[in-house]
Amino acid sequence: xTEPDDDGHHWYYDHPRTLLGSLQRGxxxxxxxxxxxxxxxxxxxxxxxxxxxxxxxxxxxxDCGDYLARLVRDLDMDLTPITDLFWxxxxxxxxxxxxxxxxxxxxxxxxxxxxLGHAGDLRAVxxxxxxVAEAGHWMAVLEEITYRWPRxxxxxxxxxxxxxxxxxxxxxxxxxxxxxxxxxRRHPRIGDLTRRTAERAIRPPTPAPRPNDVLVAVLTDPxxxxxxxxxxxxxxxxxxxxxxxxxxxxxxxxxPLLHRAVSRLGPAVVDHARVWAQDGRMHRFGAxxxxxxxxxxxIPRLIEAWDRxxxxxxxxxxxxxANGFARFGAVAADAVPRLRAMWRWTPHSYExxxxxxxxxxxxxxxxxxPLVQGLLDSEGEVRxxxxxxxxxxHVTRTLLNGLAHDPIExxxxxxxxxxxxxxx
Length: 424
Fold this sequence. Notes:
Layout: E1 2-4, E2 10-12, H1 19-24, H2 28-36, H3 41-52, H4 65-74, H5 80-90, H6 104-118, H7 122-134, H8 138-148, H9 158-164, H10 167-170, H11 180-183, H12 188-201, H13 212-220, H14 226-236, H15 245-248, H16 258-263, H17 270-276, H18 283-293, H19 299-312, H20 318-328, H21 336-345, H22 352-362, H23 368-374, H24 380-389, H25 394-404, H26 411-423
Antiparallel strand pairs: 1-2
């Protein structure tokens, strides 16, 4: 499993059965192993390596900051290498280049330090407060720390910020949230910014929905632009189900929200989806629809789609198939080894929730170990699901007690863990 680096080389995820491979993926197994082997110097080296190199496959949806910060805290690791990396990354001229894979180290170190500060680490608090005054990317730091930190940790930075704020920076001010809403009450300049932000946020009124006949006419009009067709499909995704889309889907392939619009037809899509899922460019589209609406006879088709994607290392979309297996339950037993492998291997941490849900629905016994690992996963949804369904014994009660009292943990998981502990 490789990904291109900005120098033209490739970097690799380590094998998921290794500590480093688990940590790179944000897997709960990595936390369990790290805690067990905490006296091994290689453990802290592995955590530092994951902070220095952002291994998230999709930085918009895969979580890692709280996961890594929890490891830093639990292993009592030295913050100096992390703060040094933060300041080095802040000075990187390629930091704002979206094509650079290494730029992630700034955002990972920022998130780790923010999380530690949120949990009460005074050195992390001091370092990021200094960053607001001195860092090149101070606006990103300010936005991060004011999201979860208590007001007293940042409220006195207003004069520092006002001295640094340039006209270009003002364009990035999110005037509808703190710290700006708080500071606007005592600084006229910031008050003006929040009012300008409010004016920018005003959206034009939503046009009245058009009848389906009009929308279909747009989709069949050879002179309609791509934008017009996309707008029509977007409306159909919110309107009453439109059966005529089945005949148009192949010509509209690639249009945003087409899957949602077609899926609204429910079981009526199955015959078409079986044809699409056989091969060709509609293969993934058809398989996803069968996962939602197919019958037990479609399980072999979904297995075939899973194996095809696995062999081609097309890592997106397994959550759709996993949700289908969960819908079928025990009759989808052939999916179990595939779900277990995906649980370990997937670089998309957000897809592990679907794998865990499917394992529990198809074979509860096969889900026991993954549920324990899920308690310490990087993804909040995985932790929530694991907390709600893990078997209670001495080990899991200890883990749940840790989650229930961990300031790093989300309020939702803390409350759910406390409720599970009190339930029996």
